[in-house]
Amino acid sequence: RWWQNRRARLLCMLALTFLFFVVEVVVSRVTSSLAMLSDSFHMLSDVMALVVALVAVRFAQRTRATKKNTFGWVRAEVMGALVNAVFLTALCFTILLEAIERFTEPHEIQKPLVVIGVGVAGLIINLLGLCLFNHHGVGGHGHSHGHGHSHGGRQHPRSGPKPEQPPGDGEAALHREETSTLVENCSSSNGVSQDKLGDMKDDMTDLQVNGNAGHYPLDVEEVEEDSSAQLNMRGVFLHVFGDALGSVIVVVNALLFYGLWNPCRKDEPCFNPCVNNHCMENATLSQTLGRENKSEQESITVAGPCWLLYLDPVLCLIMVCILLYTTYPLLRESALILLQTVPKQIDVHSLNSKLRTLDGVEAVHELHIWQLAGSRIIGTAHIKCPDPSTYMMVAKRIKEIFHDEGIHATTIQPEFASVGSESGRGKCEFPCRTQCALKQCCGAGEDNTIKKTEKSSSISISCSEVVIEFPKTRRTKSESIPSVKLEANTDQNEQFESSL
Amino acid sequence: MGRYSGRSSRLVLMCVVSLMLFAVEIAVAHVGNSLSLASDAFAVLSHLISMIIGLFGVRFSRIRWHKANTFGFSRADVLGAFGNAIFATALMFSIFVEAIKRFINPQKTENALLVLIVGIVGLFFNVFNYVIFMDCCYCRAPQGDTETGDSPNDQKSPEEGPEKKKQKKSEALNIRGVLLHVMGDALGSVVVVVAATIFQVLPLENAPCNWQCYIDPSLTIIMVFIILSSAFPLIKETSTILLQMVPKGVNMQLLTDRLARIAGVSSLHEVHVWELAGGKNIATLHIKCQTPADYQDAAYKIRTVFHEAGIHSVTIQPEYVDHKTSQLLCSSPCISKACDSQLCCSQREHPLAKTNGYTEKNDSWLSAQHKDNGSSKNDTEIPIEYPQAEDGIQNVKNCGVCDDKSRLSSTRL
Fold it and tell me: Domain B252-320 class?
């Protein structure tokens, strides 16, 4: 269904709002009402917010890595949400300034009927927008539309001979192959025949069909999509909500004005106590009274209740407060993602300790967890192990630990401690050269043991401040491993793969 | 750092003065009905915000590692600058709208003398601002000064030739940018003064608006464009960092070419390069080697290549080649294929993966698969890595856990 598509919704609302903006401008020229002109420009700001959200959605659909952005553009929606939130804050600020101005110089509303009419029309459009962008609805409708980057590769369930294949088997197959690729026994791979491979493939399929993994990839896709898209839509929703509040205020104000205000008509002598300054009140009063004939004093109309004039700024202030209160969480969330903070549900300390307590892991440093967008969480770590074979054994365990926390894209760098060092904590075996210390993302001045030419024994500051232990042994060059070079490394047959 | 105390107190002083000036300017703009003064006030406000962000940035950037943020808060500056630029753009947009309204409905500037005085005060304030911050921030490469965008590295360590030249050039550009910026702000105050002077010299007591009334909006529009012209580059710069884009000085193609040629590296994939903030570049990649010995050797060379490219924090994940797996695919993505959608980049595509001239067994199949990359709707299945060894089944958690975690995360955010 088209209306469940994010882009379609945004485009529809964009068209409506722009149309309404044009209508309002025309009406304001016809009735030469300045208030309507300013309200129409609020609609224009709405249009801009929608444009920002649309651009973000367009960008975020390109999840593939490009030359300019190795992560794809998934983060664009978070940025769109932030831009909208800041924009909304700026809008609130200008409304606040205007309201303060109105307090000092209250205006009457000219032609309240027209204002009511246009206000109601704007309110209807905004309510429509609210329904469109109700962000609770965004999460539910994900299943039916085939998005550009939904999994095309989902295999169709084969109602085949093995529906009862225990899911453990398929998973185990995966795990076995995981371990084997990490273990360097390349020779064992030669013996597998083609039909056995075919069988295993079926297992995979059935695994995906059975269990909760059946409908699975699409579900995950949608959930993940919505999580970062949700932010974007929330931004738009808040914008439309603010506009709706504005329309409500305009309508309420105009209605009350129309009903209760006793205006100064031009032909009658009239005294308006509300519009002047306090200081000038007496002067004007005396002036007005002076100008009139004393006999006509009783027929002076006094313009209507003054509090009505202050209703507008007061309502505006309330609206600003409501808007800021609802915008702040959005601002915070998108800012935290952009700041590379650890997602809220992950406790880095406990993760660190889980990793460190593994057998074969001597030290963990440069542990970084951050959220790209939505549920794509990325982690990197340097794991210090005594030797490569130990590392092979723990590598899968490490990945599992990360997986359990919800971090699926990890880069684990193994470092092999020099022979005979017990403490082995905190120092990167492979830092950059010492003068790059300040340009590294974290940590400074570490010992560089890999460099064959220079040996620098500078003071080492551990990369991770969680770890507080002083390495006792001096770092020597790591174990000399005979360098086995690959022959036939010529560049002739370089395949250039690029996803451009 | 020695600069901390002096700069911080100056920042605080300037913040207070800016706040007062902003309040005065806005009030007088309202009284005198001068739009250009209002736009100048907003410019002062945006500078105030950037100074506040600078203050917080200085405090935050000293945190190296925090439970909530494994990278420290050095990015707060960048984010703050971005937010400030967007805020300024929005304010300028509202001023622009006001100016259009004034064209339709011209109004005169009253109390021209008052406006003139305040305009001159604003002009002096701009110069004052520049003078106060010049020695600490503008001439040397400023750190965390959000008005000038990212903080370039302020350590003049002995680098290799090209690096030094790059640094000098970036400093010169920086100073030029700052000067332009300051001139732009000064121009804003000049505009105010000019508009007010005209009204002061040729007062329009009760006469209807003539050409004089159009000067204010037109000069205001000029000012809006000046301010926007300094905000947009800042937005571009900071969004490059915030979107995890490849930093400006890095050429990915060249880099991956060089990396792929290193002996010992069979192929590489999942190459990611991004900038944390202020010149700190970070890279991660997965390489496929034949043996651990290859890996040790290659690791050093890889780091050299990255170092020359200006990237100093590198995390390399070695994977060992076996003939079943395609050269270009990760041998160890998450533990289950079903987590693919939560990987930072889907395994079904091959972003920037390169082989090292290694002739693939399934060459034709691979190339066919790559041609499919354009439309991700195709049924390209990741070649399942088939089990061979007999290791015991451990921890059979399928990706139901992935799913749960992701759902949890989306609601708890």
Answer: alpha beta
**Chain B stretch 274-313, residues whose beta carbon is closer than 8 A to a beta carbon of chain A:** 274, 276, 279-282, 284-286, 290-294, 296-297, 299-300, 303, 306-307, 310, 312-313
Superfamily of the domain at A2-135+227-273+302-338 = Cation efflux protein transmembrane domain (1.20.1510.10)
CATH of span A340-416: 3.30.70.1350
pLDDT > 90? residue A316: no
Beta bridge partners, B66, equal B69
Question: What span, in angstroms and rounded, lies between the C-alpha atoms of A301 and A282?
Answer: 17
Q: Looking at residue B158, what is its pLDDT?
A: 43
Q: Report the mean per-residue pLDDT for chain A.
A: 68
CA-CA distance, A491 to A498, in Å (whole number)?
17
Cβ atoms of A128 and A16 within 8 Å: the answer is yes
**Interval A388-400: pLDDT, tens:** 888 888 888 888 8
**Residue showing tokens 């990237």:** B311
Of the options 1.20.1510.10, 2.60.120.10, 2.60.120.200, 3.30.190.20, the CATH number for the domain spanning B6-139+172-243: 1.20.1510.10
Count of beta carbons in the 10 Å neighbourhood of residue A15: 12
Compute the distance between CA of residue A184 and CA of residue A392 in angstroms, rounded to an integer.
9
| Mean pLDDT of the residues in chain B | 72
Average pLDDT over residues B224-228: 88
Please, which pLDDT band fits residue B338 given cuts at 50, 70 and 90? low
Closest chain B residue to A212, measured at CA: B400
> Cα separation of A362 and A420, whole Å?
12
Q: A64 by DSSP, 3-state: which? A: coil
User: A192, B388: Cβ pair inside 8 Å?
Assistant: yes
Is residue A460 helix, strand or coil? coil
Q: List A residues 173-192 in contact with B (Cβ-Cβ < 8 A).
A: 173-186, 188-192
Kindly list the domain boundaries of chain B, sorted by start residue.
6-139+172-243, 252-320
What pLDDT sits at residue A467? 36
